[in-house]
Amino acid sequence: MADCIFCKIAAGEIPSNKAYEDDKVLAFYDLDPQAPTHILVIPKEHIKSAAEIDETNSALIAHVFEVAAKLAKELGLDNGFRVVTNCGESAGQSVHHIHFHLLGGRDFTWPPG
Ligand code: AMP
Asked: Of 26, 30, 34, 90, which is best to mutate to test ligand 1, by the most ligand atoms within 8 angstroms of its C-beta?
């Protein structure tokens, strides 16, 4: 998508602080971290939000979660971590390219605000 910031980051047109990359998935550090570890894991393919997950792209989303688990292990988040995706306006989604926040390094409350 031409005007999507995360498509541009995935294509290397906008720089990011990368944590992991393969041909389908990119993980990079959030610019405004909400925890000691705050990484965004995205599919390079443009999918708007979790509302668009279906049988055509669910294997890709499963791969995103494999990457999140691998990063959590590598970064030593053994005490626990959170994986969050905000979907739509009420949930506070600000970038309309699906992304999973991998948060760790502190305790989290439940339910989230
Ligand atoms: P959300 O509000 O769930 O859509 O999350 C969007 C996230 O993207 C926010 O946590 C922002 O801090 C983060 N973000 C926006 N632009 C960039 C960027 N260029 N590099 C890294 N993180 C970004």
From this structure: 30
